[in-house]
Design a protein that fits this description.
Elements (H helix, E strand, L loop, with lengths): L5 H7 L9 H11 L12 H8 L3 H10 L2 H6 L3 E6 L1 H10 L17 H10 L1 E3 L4 H4 L3 E5 L5 E5 L6 E6 L4 E6 L4 E2 L3 E6 L1 E5 L1
Parallel strand pairs: 1-8
Antiparallel strand pairs: 1-2, 3-4, 4-5, 5-6, 6-9, 7-8
Length: 194
């Protein structure tokens, strides 16, 4: 029976996850998987992001980092994902985002930096919007940095991602996307301070 890969432990956050049999974890997820309005099980996190159309640039980062497979079949997670509209200023303002993905055939992606960016926006477990409503809380990213979530303003979720080199304040005003193994929060605006 296969076990989670090393990359799966990175997105999951706990080393113990590496010893859980893959097949057993998928069965558990399938039994607890949320379903859509028709009662049909939802797709995995990667499929949900791909079908939405707002996350093309983020999916490129997932693919370049090698974490796309974990977004598809890894342990349950919550991800705060900048939309394509939010990625452009984010990439321009955030030095570690510059040149991360090979935009042409002559460039080589900086996989460790991409990995840090993706994992700093990811927390273990599925955290629905109701968990944050009217509250302030601090979560741990799978990169082991703080993620502050402020749900005290009605209709707005403010997420502050702390990184060693910068802090990104993200504003979310739309409903999260539910997947069988993930909750995806679309981030519309990002401001970055160093």
């Amino acid at each position: 029976m296969a076990t989670f890969s090393r990359r799966s432990t990175l997105i999951g956050g706990f080393a113990v996850m590496a010893t859980i049999p893959f097949a057993g974890a998928r069965i558990a997820l399938a039994q607890q998987a949320p379903s859509g309005g028709s009662g049909a099980p939802l797709g995995d996190g990667l499929t949900v992001m791909e079908s939405d159309g707002r996350f093309r640039e983020w999916i490129r980062l997932l693919s370049a980092s090698g974490l796309a497979r974990d977004a598809e079949s890894g342990p349950p997670y919550t991800m705060f994902v900048p939309t394509d509209g939010a990625m452009e200023p984010y990439a321009l303002d955030f030095s570690e985002m510059l040149g991360l993905v090979a935009w042409n055939v002559n460039a080589t992606p900086d996989v460790p930096r991409i990995d840090r960016v993706v994992r700093s926006h990811t927390v273990e477990g599925m955290h629905p919007l109701s968990e944050f409503s009217g509250k302030k809380m601090t979560l741990r990213s799978t990169f082991n940095t703080e993620v502050d979530v402020d749900g005290t303003t009605p209709g707005v979720l403010t997420v502050t991602v702390h990184r060693p080199t910068a802090t990104a304040v993200q504003r979310i005003t739309t409903q999260p996307l539910m997947a069988s193994n993930a909750v995806i929060y679309p981030v519309e605006t990002v401001s970055v301070t160093r």
